[in-house]
Amino acid sequence: MKNKPIYVTQPSLPLLAEFNPYLERIWSSKILTNGGEMHQALERELCKYLGVENISLFNNGTIALLTALQALDIKGEVITTPYSFVATAHSLLWNGITPVFVDIDPISMNMNPQKIRAAITSETTAIMPVHCYGHACDVDTIEAIADEYGLKVIYDAAHAFAVRDKDGKSLLRRGDLSVLSFHATKVFNTFEGGAIVSGNKEVKKKIDQLKNFGFVDEVTVVAPGINGKMSEINAAFGLLQMKTIDTVLNKRKDVAEYYRGQLSDVKGIKLTEDIFFERSNNSYFPILVTDEFPVSRDELYERFKEVNIFSRRYFYPLISAFPMYKKLTSSSSDNLPVANIIAAQVLCLPIHTELTIDDLRRVITVIKAF
Ligand code: T4K
Questions:
Q1: Which residues contact 180 (CB under 8 A, 6 or more apart)?
Q2: Which of 12, 363, 4, 308 has the alpha carbon at shortest distance from 185?
Q3: Ranges of the chain whose pLDDT falls below 50
Q4: CA 315 to CA 85: how far, in whole Å?
Q5: Which residues contact 332 (CB under 8 A, 6 or more apart)?
Q6: pLDDT reported for residue 276
Q7: Every domain range in the chain assigned CATH 3.90.1150.10
Q8: Which of 16, 136, 284, 305 has the smallest CB count inside 10 Å?
């Protein structure tokens, strides 16, 4: 008999019975969407919990990214990272913007700020870095360069729920906007969902209009907006998830600490270092399988699969390798040497709240068997 499957992630779910009272309220109000009671309550609770001024909820992180670019009127070229989920760059293409990829830093695996200046042209209007795996970018350096050249900064913070920066404050308050994903695979999930964190009320107002077709009132449309609204059912689920988020973060921390303890001295396995932040959310547990390990990253990935363990190669292939990006000058491997190496070595181990100690031992046993 095969062992039970272990997935790279599983959503943390409350008891179904706990969700029923929320559903009953929605059923009796008959308000299903368009900024109802649950939606407003979740925006308030998230602002309080995350320590930010303004949040606009969305139906997913990708539509939130598209809208963030529209809200700041970003055009021309945007400097970004090839080492991310493809939605980061797709949000640029959908807005008619050309992504310009710069290489990543080998330690943080985030955009290397030292590479930004050389990528700036007269067409550049913004920088879109990603806090990959919830690891904070070097925000001070990125924002200093942006200020010098008059560029906007939109962080793809899809992985960075509740991450604090080195001052102990919310990482999400940095830059002009930060975009979150509340997808089922994320630390905090609303089934599907996302949000934009903005620093001022005027921008939030614009974002809220854009996610509602551009309506300002019943008869006035000021922009070609989109339908990016989060439904009441998703918002209600988010309110319920807020009750357990600290337990979820602590459990993830325990898993990460176990892996670190077990893997720190395995020859050929390199662990990431948390350098720029004080509180990580452990949304992923990436390891690098280097040449010193007895088998390749892909052989280890396949071995895991044989024993019903589903690790993932986030983020391989690089975004720049996909057909719609391949022809860009900035996609050449000469321009992205570090990203190419990391993408060939990375493997994300299972990390979520449902993992038992036996599950974790199974993962470690596979690695140590080589
Ligand atoms: N920017 C960044 C940096 C992102 O990482 C993402 C999304 C976005 C933007 C866009 O945000 P959203 O528009 O998605 O809100 C997943 C997710 O679909 C995607 O949200 C996420 N990043 C990306 C990194 O991963 P897949 O194709 O790897 O997911 P999938 O379906 O293979 O799921 C992985 C594992 O999770 C499964 O083996 C089992 C488990 N799982 C998955 C789902 C969907 C569950 O247990 N339950 C579920 O409902 O893309």
A1: 61, 64, 157, 158, 160, 161, 172, 194, 195, 196, 197
A2: 12
A3: none
A4: 7
A5: none
A6: 62
A7: 245-368
A8: 16
Helix H or strand E segment including 366: helix 357-368
Say whether 87 sits in a helix, a strand or coil: helix
Q: How far is the CA of 11 from the centre of ligand 1 (A)?
A: 11
- Out of 85, 132, 172, mutate this one to test ligand 1's pocket (max ligand atoms within 8 Å of CB): namely 85
pLDDT of residue 30: 98
Query: Would you say the CB of residue 180 lies under 6 angstroms from ligand 1?
Result: no
pLDDT of residue 273: 75
Q: What is the Cα–Cα distance from 360 to 20, expressed in whole angstroms? A: 33
The CA R_g of the chain, rounded to the nearest whole Å, is 21
pLDDT of residue 290: 97
For 206-260, what is each residue's pLDDT tens digit? Answer: 999 999 999 999 999 999 999 999 999 999 999 999 999 999 999 999 999 999 9
pTM of structure: 0.98
Q: 10 CA to middle of ligand 1, Å?
A: 10
310 by DSSP, 3-state: which? Answer: strand
**Per-residue DSSP letters for 142-200?**
HHHHHHHHT-EEEEE-TT-TT-EETTSSBGGGSSSEEEEE--TTSSS--SS-EEEEESS
Burial of residue 292 (number of CB atoms within 10 Å: 0-12, 13-18, 19+): exposed
| pLDDT score, position 297 | 98
Q: In the CATH hierarchy, which top-level class contains the domain 245-368?
A: alpha beta
